[in-house]
Amino acid sequence: MNITGVRDAAGAVAAGAQTPAGVQTLTALAFLIAWQLIGMTGSILSELFPPITEIIKSLWHYLTTPILIPHLYASLYEVLGGLLVGSLFGIPLGILFGSRRSFMQVMEPIILYLAVVPKIIVFPVFILFLGIGTHSKLAVAAIAAFFPIALLTITGMREVRPVFLDVARTLGASTLKIATRIYLPAIAGYVFTGLRIGLGAAVTGALLAETKIARAGLGFMIVEYYGQFRMADMYALLLFIFILAALANWGMKALFSLLLPLPRSSENVAAFI
Amino acid sequence: MRLGWIDPFFLASPVQAIGVLWSQLVSGNALYLILVTLYEIAAALLIATVVGLLVGFVLWRYQLIGASYELFLAALFSSPVILAYPVFLVFFGRTSAAVIVLSSFFGLVPIIMNTKSAFQHVNPILVQVGASMNLSRQRMFRHILLPAAAPTIFSGFRLGLTYILKSVLGLEYVIQVGGVGMWLSDAAFRFEVGEVYAGLVGTTLLSILFLFMINHAEMKVRK
Questions:
Q1: Whole-structure pTM over 0.90, yes or no?
Q2: Which residue of A has its CA nearest to B187?
Q3: For residue A221, what pLDDT is reported?
Q4: Does residue A31 sit in the same domain as residue A82?
Q5: Among B residues 121-150, those touching chain A with beta carbons less than 8 Å apart
Q6: Which domain holds residue A37?
Q7: B75:A246 CB<8 A
Q8: 145-174 of B, contacting A, C-beta below 8 A
Q9: CA distance A231 to A212
Q10: Residues A39 and A114 reside in one and the same domain
C-alpha cells in the first residue's frame, strides 16, 4: 500500500472540502444522510421525516405518471394568467405614473405601502366575485404580480435622465422615436426584472390561495396530502414545485439576458417586494 | 355603491365596512385580535433578529462558511417556502407557534444577508485608523465595526420586518389561527361580507401603519 498516495488523496479531499463547492456538497450529503437515517429508524417524529428514498420514489411517480397533469394545468393557468393580467395593468400604469414627477410623487408611496400588504387576504373577496374555481386564484396571482411589475417599471422610468430627452428633442426626434429609442431601452431591464419577480409572486399567491380553498391545483394537492398524512408524497410535491419555480426563474433570467445583453442592477429595488 | 348597481351580498359599502371595524374595535374584540397579531410579529422578529445577527456575523467572520451557505440561503429564499406550512402544522399543531416559526424564516434571511454585507463593506480606512490606535479586538468591534455596519444592518431589519408582517398576516388567514388574519378567514367562512371588508381594511391599515413606523424609525437612526 502506497502511503504517500493515500495521504495525497486524503489531502486532495481535504483541500476540496476547503472550497465553497466542497462545503456545499458535504453539507448536502450530510443533510440527506441524516434525514435518511432518521427516516429509516423512525426515532424522531417518524411522520415528519419519511425516508428520502420514499420521497424520491414519490417524485419519480409524479414525473412518470399523468397523476399531476390536471393540477399542473390548473396551476399553470392561474400563474401565467395572473402574470399576464398583472403585467397588462402593471407596465402601462408604471409607465404612466413614472412619466410625470407629480404622478410619481403621489403614486409611488401608495404602491410601495400597498405592496407590503399580503395579497392573499384579498382572496375572500375574489371568492365572492369569481367563485372557488381557478379564476379567483388567477386574480390573487394577478394582484401579487402587479406590484413588483409596476414598481420596477416606475423605477425604470425614473432612470431616464431629462438630459436624454432634451437632447432628443433638440435633435428633432418624434414622440415615437423618443419612446422607442430612449424610454424602451431604459426601462426594458427593469420591466424584465419586474416580470421575473412578478412570476415568483404569482406562483406564491396562486398556490397559497389553492391551499385555502380550491378544487384542483398543485397547492390544493399539498393540502390534500397533508390531510391524508401522506408526508412523503407532500414533500415530493413541494420539491417538485420548488424545482419548477427555480427552473422558471432561471429560464426567465437566461431569456432576458439573451434579449438584453447589458446587465442592469435593479435587484436591490426588487428587495422591497 | 349607494345606487344599488352591485349586489350588497358581494360588496359592502365602505361606510358599512368602517362601521363594522369601529364596532369591533370598541367592543374590544378587534383589539384582542390585533394584540395577538402584534405578539406573533414581535416574537418572529425577535427570533429573526437574534439568530440573524449571529448567523450573519459568523458568515462574515468565516469566509468559507459565508461563501458556501449564502447561495443555499438565497436559493431557499427565492423559492415559495411558505407553501411548506403544513410541515410546521404537523410539528407545532394549529397554533401561533407555527405562524411565528415559519414567519421568522422570512425575516431571518434579509437580516443575515444585510449583516454579512454590512461588516464586509465597512470602510477599510476606518479599520486602519482603529488598528493604528492599537484598539483591542473588542473595542475595535464596539467602536469601529458596529457603528459603521449599523445602518445596513438596520435596513436588513426593516426588510425582515416587512416580510414577517406579510407572512404573519397571510398565514393567519390561510391556516385560520391567531389574530386579524384568522378573523378575516372566519368572517369569509360565515359569509359575513361586512366583516370581510372590515378585516381587509383593518389588515391593510395595520400593514401600512407598520411600514410608516419603520420608515420613521429608520430616518431617526440615519440622522
A1: no
A2: A124
A3: 92
A4: no
A5: none
A6: 3-49
A7: yes
A8: 159, 162, 165-167, 169-170, 173-174
A9: 18
A10: no
Q: Which residues of A touch B71 (CB under 8 A)?
A: 20, 24
Torsion over CA: A181, A170, A106, B163 (sign): positive
The angle, 0 to 180 degrees and rounded to 10, between the axes of the packed helices A123-130 and A134-159 is 120
DSSP string, B169-195: HHHHHHHT-SSHHHHHHHHHHTT-HHH
Using an 8 Å Cβ cutoff, are A157 and A184 in contact? no
- Work out the mean pLDDT of chain A and round it to a whole number: 83
Q: Which residues neighbour A106 within 8 Å (Cβ) at sequence distance 6 or greater? A: none
Mean pLDDT of A215-235: 89
Alpha carbon distance A158, A175 (integer Å): 18
Q: Does A219 touch chain B (CB under 8 A)?
A: yes
What is the per-residue pLDDT across A11-63, written as a single tens digit (0 to 9) for each?
665 666 677 777 788 888 888 888 777 777 766 666 777 888 888 888 888 88
A200 touches chain B (CB under 8 A): yes
Asked, for residue A59, whether it belongs to a domain, the answer is no
Is A20 within the bounds of a domain?
Answer: yes
The DSSP symbol for B83 reads: G
* A128–B contact, CB cutoff 8 A: yes
CB contact under 8 A, B72 and A27: yes
User: Rounded to 5 degrees, what angle do the CA atoms B166, B173, B31 make?
Assistant: 85
Cβ–Cβ contact A83 with B under 8 A:
no
> pLDDT, tens digit, for every residue of B44-89?
999 999 999 999 988 888 878 787 788 788 888 888 888 889 888 8
Gap from A161 CA to chain B (nearest CA, Å): 27
Rounded distance, CA B4 to CA A84, Å?
32
Which among B75, B78, B174 has the least Cβ separation from residue A120? Answer: B174
Q: Which of A118, A219, A272 is closest, CB to CB, to B83?
A: A219
A100 and A230 belong to one structural domain: yes
Both A153 and A36 in one domain: the answer is no
Tell if the CB–CB gap between B196 and A124 is shorter than 8 Å.
yes
**Start-to-end C-alpha separation, chain A:** 60
Q: Which residue stretches of chain A are H helix?
A: 3-17, 20-41, 52-64, 69-99, 101-116, 123-130, 134-159, 162-170, 175-178, 184-212, 218-227, 231-259, 267-270
User: Which conformational region is residue A118 in: left (phi greater than 0), alpha (psi within -120 to 50 degrees), or beta?
Assistant: beta
Among B72, B170, B212, select the one facing A118 at the smallest CB separation: B170
DSSP-assigned letter for residue B6? S
Query: Residue B46 has which C-alpha cell?
Result: 425577535
Specify whether the CB–CB gap between A237 and A218 falls below 8 A. Answer: yes
Looking at the fold, whether A136 and A205 belong to one and the same domain comes out as: yes
- Eight-class DSSP state of B123: -
Put simply, whether B108 touches A (Cβ < 8 Å) is: no
